[in-house]
Every structure is written in structure tokens, then in C-alpha cells.
Design goal:
The chain is of the alpha+beta class. It has 3 helices and 4 strands; from the N terminus they run βαβαββα. The chain has a 4-stranded mixed sheet, sandwiched between helices.
Length: about 90
């Protein structure tokens, strides 16, 4: 993981996560905003980070968090909501 403050925690087999991943790809293509993606179902280090940063805010994945502002999204969301989260709107 780089120094990016925008993170997505996801599960490899999670259908909701796959939908959000498409939005994140679009976000990078259209807005030039990258989000670091951390798989938690098969990676215990990422899972620990999820619990540490999530602090019970979100019971599962997908979980998007801005580590700088603390802004977060839980579960599947529309593209516009993901874009607004990423751009701080």
C-alpha cells in the first residue's frame, strides 16, 4: 500500500465489492483519483487494519475510508456517492 489516504476494504468473492470496484476504476479513469484496495477475507494483515480503522463503523465490506478526514462509506453505493466521498463533497 502506498501513501494514499483513500482506502477500500473488500472481500475477494463479494459481489457488492465487485460493483464498487468498477466505480473505483471509473473514478480513477474520469477523475484521476486512485483508491488503495485492501482484500480482507484472505489477508489477515488487511483484516486487522480494517478493524483498526473501521472501529465498528461498518459491519462488513465494502468499506471505504479517507484516513485523513475520517469520511467513510459502508456497503454498495451509487457511483455519484463514491465520487463525492473521494472528492470530499
Amino acid at each position: 500500500m502506498g501513501d494514499n489516504e483513500l482506502l477500500e476494504f473488500y472481500g475477494a468473492e463479494c459481489d457488492h465489492c465487485k460493483m464498487v470496484a468498477g466505480f473505483l476504476d471509473r473514478l480513477e479513469e474520469e477523475e484521476g483519483i486512485a483508491v488503495d484496495k485492501l482484500e480482507v477475507w484472505h489477508n489477515s494483515a488487511n483484516q486487522q487494519k480494517f478493524f483498526q480503522l473501521g472501529q465498528g463503523k461498518c459491519g462488513g465490506v465494502p468499506f471505504l475510508i479517507n484516513t485523513s478526514s475520517g469520511a467513510f462509506l459502508c456497503g454498495p453505493k451509487e457511483y455519484e456517492k463514491v465520487r463525492d466521498w473521494a472528492t470530499g463533497k
